[in-house]
Amino acid sequence: MRALLPFFLVLFPSVVSAFISDDEIAVLQKASAEWALGERIAFWAEQFVDTPYDTDPMGAYVTGKVIVADDRVDCMYHVFRSVELAKGKDPADSLAAALDLRFPSKGVAESGQVLNYEDRFRYGEDMIESGKWGKEITSEMGETVKIRGGRNRQYVAMIKKRDIPSVLSKLRNGDIVFFIKDPAKRSADEIVGHMGIIKAEEGNIYLISAFGQKDRGGKVKKVLFSEYSTGMPFVGIRVSRME
Predict the structure, then answer these.
(1) Exposed, middle or buried, 56 (CB in 10 Å: 0-12/13-18/19+)?
(2) Staple 61 to which of 33, 69, 101, 148, CB 3.0 to 4.6 Å?
(3) Is residue 55 classed as helix, strand or coil in its secondary structure?
(4) Residues 116 and 50 reside in one and the same domain
(5) Rg of the chain in Å (alpha carbons)
């Protein structure tokens, strides 16, 4: 089935742009239906490469009370949407998945608008610990260390920044990486400061994520994880895997 993908990308070249129609989504979901979930997550994450960074402080999807706001994305929305498109059998099914995945309980939509975004996941650490975003595999990948937690957590266990090169070979397509902030640099008691999705390709491990700042902008990039981790402003990572 994977061999069919280049044909579909020729048919629908706009799939790599910021705007993807429901018809294009449906064709690609059908073409990738037999792939493993992680393969599909990595595939959809890559479709957003070069999409502008969402500078809306709340997120354009939250401000607009919509599920789909693909023209601009931040790192959390990018992860949300990549997984939802991967899990859905068609565009409507992906919208239904969003109302489950983006909330600790359940999202409520009416007349095309989401009514309870105030109940959404706001922190990456809550996503990990909810179980909705896969099984946390951090401790299975390598040695972890404990650092100060926050928001009723005494501590969290993570893989140190300097140890990331030693665990790269254990990452798989579609793994979700949550980047841990230095406790001294947290502004809102947040533990996770960034997130992205893994793409393994030709022996290399790439991180696909929306890189930017709310006051400066940015875009979705696909970068070698080894290079990013060397200079990243975070002290470590936690990882989850959806199967």
Answers:
(1) middle
(2) 69
(3) coil
(4) yes
(5) 17
